[in-house]
Each structure stands twice: as structure tokens, then as C-alpha cells.
Amino acid sequence: MNIAHFLWEFPPVIKGGLGTFGMEVTQKQRTEHNDITVFSLNEDNRYKEKEIWNDITVFRPYLPDATTMLYLAANNELRSWGTYFKFYADVMVYNLLSADQLINTHIRKHNHVVDILHSHDWLGLFGGIIAKKELEIPLIFHVHSTEVGRSNGGGSTSVKEIEFEGGQSADAVITVSHAMKEELIHLGFPEKKIQVVWNGVDPTKYDPARISQNDIATLRKQYGVSQEETLIFFIGRLVTIKGADKLVACMPTVLKEFPKTKLVLLGIGDMEMAIQKQISDLELENKIILRDEFVDENQRILHYAASDLVVLPSLYEPFGIVCTEAMAMGKPVVVGAYGTNGMREQIIPYGKDQCGIHVNPFKSEDIAWGICEILRRDDKGKSFGENGRKRVLQEFGWKIVAERIQNVYQNFV
After folding, report:
1. Distance between CA atoms of 374 and 372, rounded to whole angstroms?
2. What would the 3-class secondary structure string for 150-168 be?
3. In this structure, are residues 354 and 413 in contact, taking their beta carbons and an 8 Å threshold?
């Protein structure tokens, strides 16, 4: 097939799970002899307008600054974005220029064929809808998260309306978990359009066998964690919905029963100062290490390998690739499993295939219970980690993800 993706972040720009998803899935699609074209946002106009990346054609249109003129046409809600309105303007211009490039140059001028349009989140939706209506090509709207979920029930009315229109205009909607499907139905998306395709991970890259014991020992020493101590690891943005503050709050309870325990928090976000103060107020500076920076993928993998237990108490999580990464690295995982949370679909919480614990992330005492349940086990959850990696190999490889997406496409070509 000839597939055109509207992906606002794409290598070398990877800011989160969407960028990782786009990088991995497009490569797998290309290896299956699909022709892949990606239209991506040219952040600060730093990149070439066109390049070939791993045999994938990538267009990044140069963006004129349309902030002032679009501001004049914006409603009061959009104007309230303040300095962030420029991002909205850049997204709109990127979509319009990308749609024009696809319609008038790629197809009409150079006679390229496109079978499927695939827009990811509201950030790549305008271009997809415009191209669908102009060219009468099937459009897949891939919902990785929603505005209401990202904002913990609030958010931009304008973005919500854009997402809703995507659900009505697209030929099919892919979302990343059954929990997200339930949310989309609640938001008014047509149920019959929605297909669930879990995200994935590369288990050859996220493989504990690849990491040397010397590298693990060096990292643990860097954090002051001895061989006898247990290292709990959290990775994620330091924002309310990721629950890092709830995890910090539960640590006094954990430490009463397991004093030889330390917690490493790795991430950046607007709660950094509040969490640092929380650690100080609890007098846990020697037990909780906050590393507020974005590290590269190799460092992330090393952190998983060096940890004994991964805790991800998200209040809202459409899927949660960090959970899949931790499972692939053979680690037991405690996850938030309340409301819209795709991590509860990844972690089996009981039985012979158990790979972790489900908790209510809104209650610190429940997070503490989940951690202690694993640490009380004779093997400290090692068997859970082994089960988690087996589950990844069966369900969450990127090749499997790409095949499931291809099956959705097949209904429309």
C-alpha cells in the first residue's frame, strides 16, 4: 500500500510516546513493502523540507509565522492560550501546507498514488481531513490521547471539537486501548468505527540480556544505591496525571516495612519544584532521588535494567509505552488501573501469568500496598518480570502492531 502519515513529531524530533510510535510503526510498514510518506512539523524550521529517512519520504514544510493573523481569527478560548498560541498557529499552518504538498505536488503534479491517509491525534488531523475531502481517499484517525484526558477533565474546547470532528469524518478510528475506546464512545465517537490496536516496544532493543552488570552497578552507585538496597524506578513527565507526587507520598509507608529501599524519579515537568519540596518536607532526601532531565533511549533502558521494581501510578494513561518497556526489560510493574488507563490491559494482576499489580493511583496507601505486595515475595517479583517479558514477545512487538494496523487498512482499499 501507499500510506501517508500526518505525524507532528517524527525522528529526529521525539518528545514522547507518539514520536516513538511513529518511528517504529512506519519502519515496520516499510519493511512489509509499503510505500510510506510522512508529513511532520518543522520545529523552528530547523530541518530540510524533504528528506529520505530509512527509505521513508519525510516532508517538513517551512512554517511562516502566522501567529498574529490567526490570533485575529481565533475565539476567546484560543486567545487565552497566551504564549502557547504560537504552537497552535504552527500546527494549523503545518497541516495546511502538508495537505497542499500532498494534494497538489505529491499527487497531482508528480502522479504519486496514496491509498490510505493516517492522521495521528488532533495535531495531524486537519491535513488528513482536507486531503480526504479533496482526493476521496480513506482516512484513519489514530487517537493516542484526548484533550479531556490530557487535561484531567478540562482542556481546550476548540481542540475537543477538532477531535470530535475527526471521529465523525474519518472512515475508521484507531485507538490504543479498550479503556480509550470506552472514553471515545462516551465523547460521542461512533462505536462501529473504533478499532483497538495496542502500542508496542522493540524487545530486541529492550532486552535485559544486552545490559552489562558493570553498567548496572555504575548507575546504581551514581544514585547511591547499594547492592543490598531495593531500587524503585519511576519514569514519566512530572505532571499531575502521571502521579509522581502520589508515589512520593506513599514512600514513608513503604520505608517502614522495607527501610533498605530507594526511589529514583526520572522526568521533567511543571511539578518539579513541588515534588522536590514534597521530598524535603518528608525528610526523604536520602531515600528519593529526583533527576529532572530528559535522557536518551539508551539511558532509559539502563535505568530499567538497574531497577528492581517499576512503579507507574498514572491517573490517566491511554496506553503507557513506559509500562511496555519495563515489561520488556523483565521488571515487575505496579500500575495505576483506575478510569481510563491502558496499562491495566498490559499488566496481568493475578494467576500464573501475573506480571505486576493494579492499584488505585488516587490513593497513596494503595500504591504503597502494591509496592509492598511485590517486595514481600521471596523473589521480589522476579517471576512477574519474566512473565512480563513473555507477554511482550507475544502481544506487544512493533511488527504485531503494524500488522494489526494493516488489517484495519484492508477494510478500505
Report:
1. 5
2. HCCCCCCHHHHHHHHHHHH
3. no
Average pLDDT over residues 296-302: 93
Cell of 124: 495531524
Closest CA to 333 of 247, 204, 240, 239: 247
Q: How many residues does the chain have?
A: 413
Helices 297-306 and 213-222, packing angle to 10 deg: 90
Task: Give me the residues paired with residue 195 across strands.
Answer: 174
Q: What is the pLDDT of residues 254-293, one digit of tens each?
A: 999 999 999 999 999 999 999 999 999 999 999 999 999 8
The burial class, CB within 10 Å (0-12 / 13-18 / 19+), for 55 is exposed
Q: What CATH architecture does domain 2-200+397-410 belong to?
A: 3-Layer(aba) Sandwich (3.40)
pTM of structure:
0.92
**Topology given in CATH for the domain delimited by 208-395:** Rossmann fold (3.40.50)
The structural domains of the chain, with segments of one domain joined by +, span 2-200+397-410, 208-395
* Residue whose cell numbers read 497538489: 104
Residue 65: all three cell numbers together? 509565522
Tell me if domain 2-200+397-410 and domain 208-395 are identical in fold. Answer: yes
Tens-place pLDDT, residues 51-106 = 999 999 999 999 999 999 999 999 999 999 999 999 999 999 999 999 999 999 99
Q: Which three cell numbers stand for residue 384?
A: 512477574
Residue 114's pLDDT is what? 97
- Write down the residue that cell numbers 470506552 correspond to: 182
* Sequence-ordered list of residues with C-beta below 8 angstroms from that of 60, at least 6 positions apart, any chain: 39, 40, 41, 42, 47, 48, 49, 50, 51
The helix or strand, by DSSP H or E, that contains position 56, with its residue range, turns out to be strand 56-59
